[in-house]
Amino acid sequence: MKAITYIYGLIDPRDGLIHYVGRTVQDVERRLITHLSESKWDGALSIGTSKSVWLKELTNAGFSPQIVILGQEEIERGLRGLSELELFWIEKLQAEDHPLKNGWGTSGYGDYIRAKNAQRRSQYPLPPPVSGMTGNEIRIRRERLGLSQYQLAKALGYSNSTVSRWECGSRTPPPGMALLFNRIEESQK
Q1: Alpha-carbon distance 70 to 90, whole Å?
Q2: What is the full DSSP assignment across 95-118?
Q3: Could you give the CA distance from residue 40 to residue 59 in angstroms, rounded to a whole number?
Q4: Taking the domains of the chain in order of start, what are their residue ranges?
Q5: CA–CA distance from 152 to each of 7, 79, 161, 188 (Å)?
Q6: Sign of CA pseudo-dihedral 16, 19, 24, 61
């Protein structure tokens, strides 16, 4: 029996990069909650995967990952291993230097992923940018608020170099930036 499966990415709000790619047939927000609860148990038992160690570190620092749907596909229920679309996104994001915590890069899957994805690089379209704001829009709003890059970075909990990278376009801003700007504007009133 086939089911619609969502391929998703977990984004670290500190750097705006995807750190994990997974798939689920359930609501992605529910899946995020499951990841967070699993990381608490894995960390408590000292058997954490690199994903659960990252999630525990993230939540201990007062942050929560953001989840983005990368695509969907219809696959057989109970499929073991990686799906075609998962493989595509892992390869693509590794090539873009996203620090994935899936573990495939060192476990022998790396060559398999590269070979499989060489056949289908153009098969899947890119999703829209996950931030909703471009670097130029961030710069304009920052300047309108009268803030330096350093001041904005401090207000958002990011480094000055991260804000600079967003504005020059070398990094994609994380989702929800417009909401963060709205909060800053409200606090200045």
Answers
A1: 11
A2: HTT----S-GGGTTHHHHHHHHHH
A3: 9
A4: 2-118, 135-188
A5: 32, 45, 11, 13
A6: negative
Reference 105, options 94, 118, 92; nearest CA is 94
Question: What are the pLDDT digits (tens) for 51-107?
Answer: 877 888 888 888 889 888 898 888 776 666 667 788 788 888 887 888 888 764 444
| Gap between the Cα atoms of 25 and 74, Å rounded | 10
> Minimal CA–CA distance to 123: which of 72, 73, 88, 159?
88
Q: Six-digit token pair at 18?
A: 């995807």
What's this model's pTM, rounded to 2 decimal places?
Answer: 0.53
CATH superfamily of 135-188: lambda repressor-like DNA-binding domains (1.10.260.40)
Please tell me the distance from the alpha carbon of residue 20 to that of residue 163, in angstroms, as a whole number. 22
Q: How many helices (H) and strands (E) would you count in the chain?
A: 8, 3
Q: Which DSSP letter does residue 129 get?
A: P
How many residues are given for the chain? 189
Q: Are 16 and 174 in contact (CB under 8 A)?
A: yes
